[in-house]
Amino acid sequence: QVQLMESGGGSVQAGGSLRLSCAASGSRSSIKTMGWYRQVPGRQRELVAAVASGGSITYSDSVKGRFTISRDNAQNMVYLQMNSLKPEDTAVYYCKIDVLLINLSTRTYWGQGTQVTVSS
Q1: Exposed e or buried b for every residue in 80-102, given b needs 16+ CB within 10 A?
Q2: 8 A C-beta contact, residue 23 and residue 75
Q3: 77 and 36 in contact (C-beta within 8 Å)?
């Protein structure tokens, strides 16, 4: 059973930094994409950043230049370094991975979420 364990959320003042970590365990298949999403009450969950197994990276426009995603394939870890945080970054942040199965289909797993609160 694949499990995702997130850590690193918390409260910070505007302009501050936080680093989120996500550890994936239990996967016997290769992990294609690892990423971070966020959600605020009443709104859809949105992509923050994602990194593919080949290294290509996608960022939402709202975090470009402030957030950096990275992954450690050997440890099945993904990180999100968040700098210059703004109050509008306040949300629950979720780790997501896409696992490539033997039949070449993809299965998605989500973490439990970690709260990030940025005060002005």
Answers
A1: bebeebeeebbbbbbbbbbbbee
A2: yes
A3: no
- CB–CB of 116/89 below 8 Å? yes
CA atoms of 15 and 87, how far apart (whole Å): 9
| pLDDT band of 26, cuts 50, 70, 90 | confident
User: Looking at the DSSP assignment, which residues form a beta bridge with residue 117?
Assistant: 11
Confidence of residue 59 (pLDDT cuts 50, 70, 90): very high
Distance CA 66, CA 39 (A): 18
Count CB atoms within 10 A of the CB of residue 13.
Answer: 11
Residue type, 108: T
